[in-house]
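INFO batch 0412 | record 1 of 1 | parsing
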Amino acid sequence: MPPGATHVLVPSTQQEAIFEMRQESKDGIPLRFKGSAIYWIDEPVTAAKHYDFTQGAAAGVAEINAHARGVCLFALREQVSHMTMVECIEQRKTTLTEAVAAALRQVAHGQAGQPGWGIHIDVVQVAQVFIVDDELRRQLEAEVRNQLKSTSELSNINTQEAIQKAQSESKRRLQAEHLAAERERIQTEQEKHRLQQASEQEVIQQETPVRLLRLAKQCEVLAQERVMRRLENEIKVLTVENELMAKRAQQTLRQEILPLEQRPAIAEALANTFQGPICRSTARARRWPPPWRRWSICSRPTSSGLAMRQIEAPV
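INFO prediction complete | emitting tokens
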């Protein structure tokens, strides 16, 4: 360093300038604003020319902070005077912060050939907006709470409606899927029934000639059986008639022989009647045929009728 030259210490770290003010909004409600600007000195020579760092780095930084604070408050007042309370609260991070940051960068970085402050602005923000009147703040807070409650209840109602709608849509979708499945099942069963009927008809058409032939054979067998049974019945009838004819012939022959067998008894009875008891032995002795003979009749069937013969058999 040449003799007679002076030097100062300029900090190269980030610095913060905090600004705070009270201002009524466009609708006449007093508000309190608080914000900050973060910067660092990128051109120490320029900064040393504009600010006094001979008393120390803190003195020079304090001057920079005072100038930055003044610019921020001026821009903030100008912007708040055209905004309502609700707009200030809702747009503190957008409109208010952008207005303050633009004004501070325009002055600190220099414009229209004028040198800047030798600093670089990193961040500028309006951090807080307060309502000064406590009663008004409580009312607004109650209103906000009610609005939030209403919003929450409406959100719950909308959520329930959405759930019910989703459930209804799900039920309708499930019913539609069930109907589609049932329709497909019915179509499948109809197709299966149609195929089964076609198969049965094909089987019937294939089996019809065989069954007709079988029935024809059965009819022939039944006809032969009927002829055979008719012949058997005729034979049985002839057999019964022959047996009846034999029995009739026996009865007729018996009727013819009966008087002959009873004739000796009748003669003896007449002899006893006319001769008395004395001649009974004589009449018995003259009886003819002798008592040891009896006539028996035997018949046998022949092709021309019954053949009769007499057989003597001792008694």
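INFO post-check: Helices lie at 44-50, 57-80, 85-90, 92-108, 134-275, 280-285.
INFO record closed
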